[in-house]
Amino acid sequence: MPNDELAKRRWLAIPSDFRKKLENNVFCSNCGETTIVDYEVDSVNHDIILKGYCKKCNGEVARVIN
């Protein structure tokens, strides 16, 4: 199974209310705490990584979940 598919399965295994909290608690270097939007799910060293954009300024942001 490709790495990104496994990461998506692991991400979707997290309860939706907790996933929402993680999406709404991302750091943006321009805005501080923000929400990640239009993100892709990946994995590195068994960590789930969300790569997307800041809801406020549209800058690139990422969230690592281990």
Automatic annotation (TrEMBL):
Name this protein carries in UniProt: Uncharacterized protein
Organism: Gracilibacillus salitolerans
Lineage of the organism: Bacteria, Bacillati, Bacillota, Bacilli, Bacillales
